[in-house]
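Field reference: sequence -> structure
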Amino acid sequence: MSGDDLIEPTVEQLVAALPGTGEIMASVGRCFGEAWHAAQAGNYDLAAYFVRRTRSLLRKLLIVRPKYTQQVTEFDRDHMESVYQALMAGDLAAFTAAYERAVERANFYHLDTGHPYVRWRAPAEPPDRGLDLGG
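Structure field:
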């Protein structure tokens, strides 16, 4: 098949190919979990990278599920920014407190949006066990 033979996808086909809420939120959980473990290991740069990645994924969620705009905007402003700033300051105590508040709020949103069975917590082990989290 040559390049001239390729069929241009329709908008509907492109939308169908986008990841759903479950896929995006699974990635959010992995990145936010990695941020926790990287910070605990003292690697604030890597933890900040994973927080930026988490925020980016949440913004992408708004493309496929704009009904969550208010919650995601509030969560980013009121929680993710504090988590990020604590990492930028290299303050583990502030990070831990902000992270725990963010987790508590995320779980509130799960209840508020009709998903009481989704209860998140920092994973006991890093999601990617092959990643060197040390500073």
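Note: The mean pLDDT is 92.
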